[in-house]
Amino acid sequence: MHYVYLLESIDHAGQRYVGMTTDLTRRFKEHNAGKSPHTSKFKPWRLTTYLAFSDEAKALAFERYLKQGSGHAFANKRLW
Question: Which domains does the chain have, with CATH numbers?
């Protein structure tokens, strides 16, 4: 499975992150351990939403969508 996930910083209000992985548990632990340069300064994180895709291309397309303007609006309204 391919997971698209949304994280929200616990200590830094308004800081959010969208990512994709095949091992959600491992990746979430890495974010909270500071192993990702994009998220380390805003840890700790909480997992707010994840979606599972059997098709990698569909997961990648959805992740890209969430990182764009209309995808931000969709996520803000429906996923956070």
Answer: 2-78 (3.40.1440.10)
Q: How many CB atoms lie within 10 A of CB 29?
A: 11
39-61 tens-digit pLDDT: 999 999 999 999 999 999 999 99
CB 53 within 8 A of CB 4: yes
Three-state helix/strand/coil letters over the chain:
CEEEEEEEECCCCCCEEEEEECCHHHHHHHHHHCCCCCCHHHCCEEEEEEEEECCHHHHHHHHHHHCCHHHHHHHHHHCC
- pLDDT (tens digit, 9 = 90+) per residue, 20-32? 999 999 999 999 9
The pLDDT, as a whole number, for residue 32 is 97
d(CA 62, CA 67): 9
